[in-house]
Structure formats: structure tokens, C-alpha cells
Amino acid sequence: MAISKFPQDVQAVFSVPFLDLKAINTQYKDELNSAVSRVIDSGWYIRGRELANFEQRFAEYCGTKFCVGVGSGLDALSLTLKAWRQMGLADVGDEVLVPANTYIATILAVLDAELVPVLVEPDEKTFNMCPKLAAEAITQRTKVVLPVHLYGRMANMPELSALAERAGLLLLEDAAQAHGASLCGRKAGAWGGAAAFSFYPGKNLGALGDAGAVVTDDAELARMVGMLGNYGSQEKYVNLHIGSNSRLDEIQAAMLLVKLAYIDSEAAKRTIVAKKYSEGIRHPLIELPEWLYDASHVHHLFVIRTTHRDALRTHLKNKGIQTLIHYPVPPHQQAALIQHFRHLSFPITESIHSSVLSLPMSPVMTNEQVNTVIDACNLWSPF
Ligand SMILES: *Cc1c(COP(=O)(O)O)cnc(C)c1O
């Protein structure tokens, strides 16, 4: 079979694709089409009604006062940190605590804001930042704690926010994988001084292109993030800060408005898949993620661990099942970052990266597909 250079053509050969975005968006095709038409007919394509509407609804959804749409999740993180710098709350060289096993974007945002990322090992059971190790990593220069709700599971926010308060630190949530998750009745995004969301197409709330947002209760921060993502200006041609161009356009805002209405029902479908996997997969060499019967996990990814990952991946591939690895190389070992972390080692993170495997997970998987994955896992014999 010819392998095309486009990943979507590679995906088409799997009977159980990892994430079928076409199937997800096709569910809402009529609504998405009419939303696009509405934008075309409006004659207004940047920072108009669609964005204002989405910002209001997403802030309401998260339980925060403000939402500012930006160009991506990465920009949501870096613009927040830069805004805090402009507001005099952080200075060049100040330290930011981030999980060592996060997606690299979290760390790139810190560097982009000229701050220093300090990597904190995760709790091995939850994959999330360990509050105790975070506390130990605090120095005179620490200004921000930046937990990530990795794989859709909320970090230990009660302890991390208490820690931030005790130590006088700013708290920024990277909620790019956890739209709609909630802990103690409080949504992801409503715990810190601010939170960053990504609406990259593959996220639980995905646009049909790039998009992101910052949510916060702080009016001044919201204003500053909006300015920095709009050439540092609030009033056209009056530039108060050295900004950039990072805006959530009207078409993407209109797509997100359509999809926001279905976010909870999609999370419920993901939960059903996770529950079936958790109850169905039984294999001595497959370690399942700890199952949570509550809303604190929206199952962005279903991540198992095994010491024989390559063998399991190949076995599943031969059965038509597509898997991915989140993530194969830890950030501190990436060529781009090696200069920052050269002499450091993070054994928990390294062991996670060498053993994790993400099974297909989406709100459009059929029962049959879920059972195919369960049976294939249970029938695997690596030796
Ligand atoms: C996706 C993601 C980002 C970056 O979002 P983009 O929209 O791709 O820029 C940041 N952090 C985490 C944890 C992510 O998963």
C-alpha cells in the first residue's frame, strides 16, 4: 500500500482511528455551515460579535468573570505571563514551576515570556504535578506555579492553590486538555489567577483551526492579555505595549460557539469509553490509569503504561488500531531545550515517557470499536 505524506491518509487505514475528527465535526455539519455563512454575511472577520459571544459564554461555562480569545493555547499561556510582567507582578528571570512531563508548549511559553521554567516531577499515579515536590522547588525567585491538567485529569488544585497562597505565588492553570473538568464543584480554569485553554482541533473543545483563550476574574489581566494579543493596542493605532498578533478570528469563534453546546455530552461519551476500557482490559503487562468516578477527569486521553510498549503498539496496529504516545520524549531531553536542563534528570518523568501509550479515545467511537480495542489488548501475548 502506498503511504501518502499526509497523516490523515495514514489514519484512514485504521479500522479504529485514534481520533476521528471528521466524524466529530460531521455531527454538527449543518450548524457549522450556517455559522460560517453567518460570518461571511456579516462582513466582519476579526474581533466582532462571534468572538464577544463566545468569550461571554466560555467565561460563564468556566465560572470566571472574563474570557479573552487568542490565537492558540501556547499564546494563551505566554500572553498571560507577559501580561503579568507588564503589570509588574513578575520580572525577567523569575521562576515558574511547571510539571516536567508536560507537553512542551507549557515550557516554551515560560521561555517566551523571559521567565525560567523549573521542572517539577509528577505524582506517578495521576501524571500531574506533585504538590509536595512543587513546595520543595520554591526559591526566592519563584513567582508562578503553572500546573497542567494532563490527559484531561485535574491536578491537585486544592493543595496547589493553597501552596500558591501560602507562598505568595501567582497560579496559572494550563487547562488545554481539560475543558469542562471540575473538582470540588469548581471548573478547570476557575482555580488560579488565570487559566489558558487551547482549542486546537484535537482538544476536547476543538475549533476547525487554531484558537485559544485566557480565562480570569482579573479585569486588569484580561485587558492586558487582550492588548498584548492585538499589537499592544486597545484603541486602533494607539500602541501602549510591545504586543503581537494573536487573535481568535470570527470564523473560529463561530465554530466554537456551535461546539460549546455539546461539550458536556461529548465528555460524557468519553467517560463511557474510559469506563469500558477500565472494566474490560485485563492484562498482567498493561497498567490502567487510576479510574475516577467523578467529573475531575474529562478523558482527553486514555493513557496506559506497559514495559513492552513497542510490542503492544505493533500488535494493536496489526489489528487495525491506531495508538499514539503522549509524549515520546520528555521536554528536558528535547534538542530545543537541552541547553536549559543539561545537568538535570527526572526519573519519574523519564519512566513515564518510556512506558505510556494512548489508546483510541473520542466521543464518536462505536461500541464495536471500543470492544475491538479491549479484545486486542486482552489477547496480546508479547512473548
Ligand atoms: C495543546 C496544548 C498546548 C498548546 O495549545 P496550542 O493551541 O496547540 O498552542 C499547551 N499545553 C498543553 C498541555 C496542551 O496539550
Q: What's the shape?
A: globular
| Radius of gyration from CA coordinates | 21 Å
CATH topology of the largest domain: Aspartate Aminotransferase, domain 2
Number of E-state strands: 13
The number of helices is: 15
Lateral arrangement of strands in the main beta sheet? 1-9-8-5-4-2-3
Structure ligands: pyridoxal-5'-phosphate
What is the number of domains? 2
**CATH top-level class of the largest domain:** Alpha Beta
Order of helices and strands: HHHHEHEHEHEHEEEEEHEEHHEHHHEH
Topology (elements, then pairings):
Blueprint: H1 7-11, H2 21-26, H3 29-42, H4 49-62, E1 66-70, H5 73-86, E2 95-99, H6 104-112, E3 116-120, H7 131-136, E4 142-145, H8 157-167, E5 170-174, E6 182-183, E7 186-187, E8 194-198, E9 212-216, H9 219-228, E10 233-235, E11 238-239, H10 250-260, H11 263-280, E12 302-305, H12 309-318, H13 338-341, H14 347-355, E13 356-359, H15 367-378
Parallel strand pairs: 2-3, 2-4, 4-5, 5-8
Antiparallel strand pairs: 1-9, 6-7, 8-9, 10-11, 12-13
Helix pairs in contact: 3-10, 4-10, 5-6, 5-9, 11-15
This protein binds pyridoxal-5'-phosphate.
The site of pyridoxal-5'-phosphate has 15 residues, from α5 and α6.
